[in-house]
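Case study 2.
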Amino acid sequence: MTDEFPVPPPEEPTNEQPQEDRLSQLESEVKECHEKNLRLLAEMENSRKRLIKEKQDMTRFGIENVISDFLTPMDNLENALKFAQQMSEETRNWARGFEMILSQFKDVLSDHGISSFDSVGSSFDPHMHEAVEVEETDKAPEGQVLQEFIKGYKSAQRTLRPARVKVAKAPGCCDPQEQQTN
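Prediction:
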C-alpha cells in the first residue's frame, strides 16, 4: 500500500490584484461614458431651446417688419380723417366707415403687442425718438420733447418706428457760426 498523503491542490496564481485594477478601470470608463452622455443630452436640450427661441424671434421680427410698413399709410389715413368734419354730410358718412377700418388696423397692432407712444413732454431718448428739429427755449428743460411730428410705435422688445420730434435746447450765448466770424 502506498501511503498517500493528501496533497493540497496546486495553488492557482492570484489574479485578484489585476482583476481589481480591471474592475476599477471599467467602473471609471462607465462613469466617464455616463457623464459624457449627460453632457450631450444637456447640449441637445440647450440647442433645441435655442432653435425654438430663434424661430420665435424670426417670426416676431418678420411680423413686426411687415406691420411697420403699414404705419405710414395708417398715419396718412388718420391725418386725412381729421379734416372730415369740414366736409359735406355724405363725405362725413364715408369718413365714419374709414374710421372703423382704421380702428380695425389699430386692433391688429394691439393684438400683436404693438402700440404708439406719446413723446411730448418726455425726455429725448435716441432709442425712441428721432430729432428732426431743435428749438432754443428757456420755457422747457434741455432735451425735453416739445412737439411730435410723426407718432412712434414700439413692441415689447424694440422700437418699430421712432417718433419724429422737436427737442428743446437751452439758449446759448451765441451761435457757433457767429463765434467763428468774430
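The chain has a mean pLDDT of 86.
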